[in-house]
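Progress report, Aim 2. The chain analyzed during this reporting quarter is listed below.
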Amino acid sequence: MKARSPNESMIEMNELVLPNDTNLLGNLLGGTLLHWIDIAGAMAAQKHSNSVVATVCIDSVDFREPVHVGEIVTLKARVTWVGRTSMEVTVEVFAEDYLRKLKRATNKAYVTYVSVDSDGKPREVPGLILETDEQRKGHAEAEKRRTQRLKRRQTEQN
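Predicted structure tokens for the chain:
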């Protein structure tokens, strides 16, 4: 199985925020955004692993500012860490007011997926080739999040 670079898993997905996607204030619903994050993240993980994936954990999602009806949402997802069968994907979210030509970062999420075979059993994934300092930093931060997830899981089991 040939290792791959995070750039090889990069996915960019665009969505237009429609009235049905918003609350009474015209702001994008958090649940709708989480749905889009999961789709973009899964596509990046599937691209890296060449297999179907299942969502294991949404580690954290930062909601920095609201996204408004009529704006274009761009989600950029890439694999930042891999284990034997699992992968962490970083998803960055941007909102664009195309009428005023303004684009801003609005959210960031870390999502873990497991690669599965046709029977739904975990399967091995390719390694990750870290080519830049930014990729190495993202990988190190992902390792810390993984350690924290494992500690939480152990605490919950006791």
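The longest helix spans residues 133-157. The domain at 6-157 is CATH 3.10.129.10 (Thiol Ester Dehydrase; Chain A). These observations will guide the mutagenesis work planned for the next reporting period.
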